[in-house]
Amino acid sequence: MTSTTSGTSAGATSGTAAAETAGPHGATTAVDTSTTAGKLEDLRLRMEQTHTPVGADAVRDLHAAGRMTARERILRLLDPGSFVEIDALARHRCTRFGMEDTRPLSDGVVTGYGTVEGRKVCVFSQDPTVFEGQLGEVYGDKVIKVLELALRTGTPLVGIYDGTGPRIREGVVTLAQYARIYRLQSQMSGVVPQVAVVTGTVRNGHVHGPALSDLVIMVDGQAELSLSDPEFTRSVIGEVTTGAEIGGPELHATTTGLAHAVVGAEDEALDLVADLLSRLPSNNRAFAPAEALGPGEGVRVPAAARPTTADATADARLGTDAADLPPEDRALDGLIPDSPAAPYDVRDLLSAVLDDGSFLELQPRFAPNVITGFGHVDGRSVGVVANQPTELAGCLDTRASDKAARFVRLCDAFSVPVLFVVDTPGFLPGRAEESAGTVLSSSKLIHAVAETTVGTVTLVTRKAFGSAYVAMGAKDLGVDMVFAWPTAQISVADAEDTTTAVYAQRIAEVREAEGVDAAEDLAAELEREIATTVVTPYLAAERGYVDAVIAPHATRGRLRDAFGLLERKLTENPARKHGNIPL
């Protein structure tokens, strides 16, 4: 990695040792290394080169495009002064195809560790100025070393991606390095959180790194992520396309679901990484983080409203008196429309029951009929899976099931309790959905919920019909606490379908004997009876499928108590290598 003058050099002849610190293209700077000061200067020059491994012009070009260097991204993410770099002086060893003439320091990736808000984090950042961020043998060794360090120390990993694939000139060794990285990432899955930030063009073997991560952030206007590029696509299948069409943030935010968030600038992406890490533990042996709450934060119940007697405690828990509660809680009593067909935005509910401003939605434009994200309840980090009645009436389709299942597994892997908010009429029917694999996708969600070991709480606000309700966290799927509002409709089917199924023959007989009008009147009467006696939360409560029917304004307090109780839940699944989730 460095060259020194031979014994016949002028410096050596006069008894003075000299070192030539080589630049990326062979340019050297002679340094007298016979003294400690000279050795320190030699080190300074070498480390200086790591900041501009292919020269200052490349850095200026990045800045002119509004982008950071690989190193700047790390320094922007980590706490000031905390970055400890690993293998800064590494260089590739390839001597073919003219590679021996270009050996920039760092070899195209910056690696190390530091802290984010005081917590240890391992990080690597691909450098697009060095061989377009392409992976070679030494580059791979550097990434593998920091991955192994993260796994060994139980430290979250952040990968910043900006590279176009393998370094073809280095040959088959790049495939071996990819395989080692993929294997490590797979072993790390569920052990330490992995967050990927895509800041530039990511192609070929590089793309699997983000896909194997837990959370993916893409920078709009910069990021592209696809296995092939437009030129290769055109040459192989004759299709003319663009990088944005086959790998842009719009595609991954709305169609593939790969991107959990799309942001407008690199600063935003790195701030979001810090926010996400604050909601997850460092590893699978730790518990979800909790925020210290100041006066008036969290439950939003003023001291004057707190009960002082047993009766008052019962009233407060049942929510029979909302007069002294904050307006956000009282507003919940009017959230559900009188018409079961009228939509409402479940985000309004989440804003009221979660700590102020704490909800961070993930994948907001992918399968918007189910909402996923992190929030806080009384300072505790929780995951949220909620049906969204404004989209497909809250029906679950294949994408929604996939989205919810993956998020539930992420929360369970890292001991983050889960809140399910249910208002779904069922799984979306139709040829397209069946062809897309709705049976497998819905089973995936059922499997994910059933195998959770973290604390789980379900809140049924309105429709909870059929197996879609089961998939969204029914009591006997293993959910710890199930609450229902009086507006809940928990049944195999809605009142209309139940009436048809139960009384079809009787209605037909009346139609034949007394006419259509009489039959319709009877059907309407029977439907009203079914709606008030069968499609309610009370039959489920009688059988213990619902733990409590609560007034909406009491929801925040109930969630606080439930998650507080479940904070250190102890549950183990049967011993096995792993389940066979229907992928």
What's the arrangement of secondary structure elements?
Elements lengths: L2 E2 L5 H4 L4 E5 L5 E5 L3 H16 L4 H9 L5 H8 L6 E3 L22 E8 L2 E8 L10 H17 L3 E5 L11 H16 L5 E5 L2 E3 L4 H4 L3 E5 L4 E3 L3 H8 L5 H5 L1 H6 L6 E3 L2 H13 L31 H9 L8 H5 L14 H8 L6 E3 L7 E8 L2 E8 L10 H16 L4 E7 L6 H6 L1 H13 L5 E10 H6 L9 E4 L4 E3 L3 H20 L1 H18 L4 H5 L5 E2 L5 H11 L18
Parallel strand pairs: 6-7, 7-8, 8-10, 9-11, 10-12, 15-16, 16-17, 17-18, 17-19, 18-20
Antiparallel strand pairs: 1-2, 2-3, 4-5, 5-6, 13-14, 14-15
Helix pairs in contact: 5-6, 15-17, 19-20
Structure overview:
Strands 13, 14, 15, 16, 17, 18, 19 and 20 form an eight-stranded mixed beta sheet that branches. Strands 4-5-6-7-8-10-12 form a seven-stranded mixed beta sheet, with helices on both faces. A three-stranded antiparallel beta sheet has the order 1-2-3, with helices on one face. The N terminus is likely disordered. The longest helix is centred in the last third of the chain and has 20 residues. It is an alpha/beta fold and 583 residues long. A hairpin with a 7-residue loop joins β13 and β14. The protein contains 22 helices and 20 strands. It folds into three domains: 45 residues, no CATH class; 225 residues, 2-enoyl-CoA Hydratase, Chain A, domain 1 (Alpha-Beta Complex), CATH 3.90.226; 192 residues, 2-enoyl-CoA Hydratase, Chain A, domain 1. Helices cover 38% and strands 17% of the residues.
